[in-house]
Amino acid sequence: MIGRLNHVALVVPDLNAAAALYKETLGAEVSDACAMPDHGVTTVFVELPNTKIELLHPLGDDSPVAGFLAKNPAGGMHHVCYEVEDITAARDRLRASGARVLGGAEPRIGAHGKPVLFLHPKDFCGTLIELEQV
Ligand code: CO
Mind listing the pLDDT tens digit for each residue in 41-81? Predict the structure, then answer.
């Protein structure tokens, strides 16, 4: 059911420092920072030949990644995103198997303008999973 790895998201305490690290030290192609107030994050995308790394930093008062940064002040891996062809079919299959879909189970439009869902990390090896319909 899941397809390609779309991205790995890292929450970072200093977005400029993290972008510079990926650009200068690791030699990757890095986007400008993009504020996404609807998602409560500012993002920088690192383009790799086979996938992307999403650097996330909290934006605003109720950022969904603020708690993560409070618990992990040095930053860390926040989620992995897998592509699916049909997000509604994927959701129904996962719910039927007992997996918990976060946030009301209706797909919403994610940071790339495509429908996404998040799955409970306790059901998936301690890893928050994002599914994105491509
Ligand atoms: Co993501």
Answer: 999 999 999 999 999 999 998 999 999 999 999 999 999 99
Active-site annotation holds for 106: no
Q: What is the pTM of this model?
A: 0.93
Residue 89 C-alpha to ligand 1 middle, in angstroms? 20
The answer to whether residues 29 and 5 touch, using CB atoms and an 8 Å cutoff, is no
Query: Rounded to 5, what percent of the chain is helix, strand, coil?
Result: 20, 35, 40
Span 101-112, pLDDT tens digits: 998 778 888 878
What is the SS3 assignment for 88? helix
**Where do runs of H (alpha helix) occur along the chain?**
15-20, 66-71, 87-96
List the domain range (segments joined by +) for residue 128.
Answer: 5-133
Residues 6+ apart with CB under 8 A from 38: none
Q: How far away, in angstroms, is 110 Cα from ligand 1 center?
A: 7
Which CATH number characterizes residue 124's domain? 3.10.180.10
Domain count, the chain: 1
